[in-house]
Amino acid sequence: MPADQEAPHLEAALNQAAEWLRQAASVAVLTGAGVSAESGISTFRDAGGLWEGHRVEDVATPEAFRRDPLLVWKFYNTRRANIQSVRPNPGHFALAELERQLGPGRFTLVTQNVDGLHRAAGSQRVLEIHGSIIRVRCVGCEKRETRTDALAELPRCQDCGDLLRPDVVWFHEALPEEVWEQAMVAVYEASVLLVVGTSAVVYPAAGLIEVSRANRGRVIEVNLNATAASERVDLSLFGPSGEVLPRLMKLLGPS
Ligand code: OAD
Question: Ligand 1 centroid to 133 CA: how many Å?
Fold first, then answer.
């Protein structure tokens, strides 16, 4: 559809969203795999999902790692190599710009993604509630380290010699407590919560929508289509985040 014929309600919704953002004392953002889709990273639940032939239980659970760490590391080393060649897209950059415009203390980005693309785009206050595949953690001494180099097939801790694992949250695991608490506080305090590119079916992350609503935050969703969250948000902006978010920033104008 040409832009001028495109759903007139998107234009109106964008204006409404810009208005709310202008008035906001602080803003929180929750992102999911959809925000990185235009960078070429597959999402989890759309066709061609991320697991590339692997069942989640074989590669993304603590049980899988105990059973076959080599298989798990093969999977993650492939993903780590892939991440080196992808770049942030205009959606990531627009969120970094929003943070610059709002200034320190008025913006928090909570992401379920482990790809590091928000920071690569310049976002500063990023809470990675599902961890990061750029980091590793020792299963013995728990030491965490950022490693962008190619790792051994079965990497080991230089300090204690135990196995390293990707520092991500696997299925059946709890979220990192401190990071999750910071996310809840930021979302509770924010006047607006932008929910971008997530199917909003995985908890506790999806519960941040209720956290915002509990303190009368306005919730704005950006997604290709309706999601499990759509009925609980105040406004939906339907379209690719790499297009919708830059349009929103254009409406907001320079600070
Ligand atoms: P999903 O794959 O469940 O959802 C991706 C969402 O992005 C869908 O709602 C799509 O419609 C939307 N989408 C796709 N392309 C888009 C685009 N260009 N612009 C805007 N939206 C787009 O991914 P998540 O919601 O992130 O957890 O999944 C949540 C969690 O489930 C993941 O963090 C992961 C997985 O289990 C763990 O690994 C712990």
Answer: 17
What are the φ and ψ backbone dihedral angles of 121, each rounded to 5 degrees? Answer: -85, -5
The pTM assigned to this predicted structure is: 0.94
Backbone angles phi, psi at 159, to 5 degrees: -85, -50
Strands (E), the chain: 27-31, 107-111, 126-128, 131-138, 144-146, 164-168, 192-196, 218-223, 235-238
Distance (angstroms) between ligand 1 centre and the Cα of 50 equals 10
**Is the shortest distance between the CB of 198 and ligand 1 below 6 Å?**
yes
Instruction: For residue 130, indicate whether it is catalytic.
Output: yes
Ligand 1 neighbour 57 (Cβ under 6 A):
no
Considering 9, 54, 118, 130, which one is annotated as catalytic?
A: 130
> What is the SS3 assignment for 245?
helix
Query: How far does the centroid of ligand 1 lie from the alpha carbon of residue 222, in Å?
Result: 12
- The protein residue whose alpha carbon is closest to atom 18 in ligand 1 is 240
| pLDDT digits (tens), the chain, 255 positions | 444 445 668 999 999 999 999 999 999 999 999 999 999 988 887 655 556 678 878 899 999 999 999 999 999 999 999 888 999 999 999 999 999 999 999 999 999 999 999 999 999 999 999 999 999 999 999 999 999 999 999 999 999 999 999 999 999 899 999 999 999 999 999 999 999 999 999 999 999 999 999 999 999 999 999 999 999 999 999 999 999 999 999 999 875
